Amino acid sequence: MAETRAQKQLVILGSTGSIGEHTLRVVAEQPERLKIVALAARNNAERLVAQAQACHVRRVALLDRAAAKRARELDASLEVLEGPEGLCELAGMATVVMALVGLAGLAPTLAAIHSGRDVALATKEVLVGAGELVMAEAAKAGVKLLPVDSEHSAIFQCLQGGGDVSRLILTASGGPFLGRPDVDFETVSVEATLNHPKWKMGPKISVDSATMMNKGLELMEARWLFGAAPEKLDVVVHPESIVHSLVEFADGATLAQLSPPDMRVAIQYALSWPDRWPATRQKLDLAALGALHFFAPDEGRFRCLKLARAAMTAGGLHPTILNAANEVAVEGFLAQRISLAAVPRLIERAMTKAATTPALSLETILDTDARTRAKVREWCA
User: Fold this and answer.
1) Range scoring the smallest mean pLDDT among 112-121, 321-330, 340-349, 357-366
2) What pLDDT band is residue 181 in, cutting at 50, 70 and 90?
3) CA 193, CA 36: separation in Å to the nearest integer?
4) Closest by CA position to 214, among listed 322, 339, 318, 366
5) How many angstroms separate the CA atoms of 34 and 272, rounded?
6) Of 71, 112, 360, 365, which sits with the fewest C-beta atoms within 10 Å of its C-beta?
7) In angstroms, how far apart are the furthest CA atoms of the chain?
8) 214: closest CA among 174, 181, 184?
9) pLDDT of 117 strictly over 70
């Protein structure tokens, strides 16, 4: 289809993951409004090439150089970039949907910002590990960071009317072990941990959901996205995953955003804002639901949430260290080298010597991240 003026051009970084695949579905549902011009992934060459062919995209990038070579073999007509520099080059082309897992999304996000491109951000680790730096650069460049996580999208939507905010409340599904005190985190399997009751997500975020680190990371992301002090951020467990987050205002009113657990709602709003586009997907039926439930999280059992709060309050390089330690510990659990119970233990060990200096230098952040990863890999081994 020929491009029209109304079409917003997109670069999807992390297109082969869960958020990337959902974004492709949103684009397919909105062909007159959205057009993909480039795609990138970490190492899944086969799926990336298939996506590029289906979307008629000629430019792609792979973070892994061996995977980039494989992509060229699969389709010689594609222009295949590689490594961090390849992703950064694509990030300057158009509005970016940042869906890479982990701190790998930091350099391309900064590249997009420095090119004056808005970023629809799903990679929470970018703001967890370098929020102060990223938000300062975005303000300097005059670009927008639009939230893609359902919780942050909900808060963003509730804030559109303005008002004096007293509290931002993120909802948590509780993960696969909610209400199951019989589950021993020392022996629980990877398969059971990845079996989320509501959302179909990638392995890393599924483990984070099971430990509730995902909610801790989201608290830190919300701090930077919405300029909220740590004491104004809260979490409530909501197993139905219908209320995606709430905003409490100074006058006592609380606004919530509700929708079925479908990531396309948040993704589309990030791409359509400040407008709302019609969509033919499932709508909410409150009468059929009958009841919604809420209760406080158990931070004694889910220690990652408590550690994330501590890192957010301490500031400096604590969030960078927490994020790096968590990524490596989760890798260790998925590879069955450590137990799920070891994840918070390793994070806490890494954080004990964290510096409190401001994390405004990209070099300092990346150096701290690399040193933390090396330490935690040693401990996992």
Assistant:
1) 357-366
2) confident
3) 34
4) 322
5) 9
6) 360
7) 61
8) 174
9) yes
Which band of pLDDT confidence, cut at 50, 70 and 90, is reported for residue 23? very high
Tell me the whole-structure pTM to 2 decimals. Answer: 0.91
pLDDT score, position 355? 64
Is the torsion defined by CA of 366, 146, 21, 308 positive or negative? positive
**Model confidence at 176: pLDDT above 90:** no
What are the tens digits of pLDDT across the range 220-236? 999 999 999 999 999 99
Reported residue count of the chain is 381
Concatenate the DSSP letters of all residues of 134-194 into one string.
Answer: HHHHHHHHT--EEE-SHHHHHHHHHGGG---EEEEEEEE---TTTT-TT--TTT--HHHHT
Q: Read off the amino acid at residue 177.
A: F
**Region 109-135 average pLDDT:** 95
CB atoms within 10 A of CB 239: 18
Residue type (1 letter), 9: Q
CB neighbour class for 199 (10 Å; exposed up to 12, middle 13-18, buried from 19): middle
pLDDT at 4: 46
* Number of Cβ atoms within 10 Å of the Cβ of 286: 10
Answer yes or no: is pLDDT of 3 > 50: no
The dihedral region occupied by 371, where left means phi > 0, alpha psi between -120 and 50, and beta the remainder, is alpha
B/e letters for 255-270, b = 16+ CB within 10 Å, e = fewer, are bbbebbbbbbbbbbbb
- The DSSP annotation for 287-345 comes to HHH-----B---TTT-HHHHHHHHHHHH-TTHHHHHHHHHHHHHHHHHTTSS-TTHHHH
What's at 148, amino acid-wise? V
Q: Is the dihedral of CA 207, 211, 217, 223 positive or negative?
A: positive
- Of 252, 255, 257, nearest to 151 by C-alpha is 257
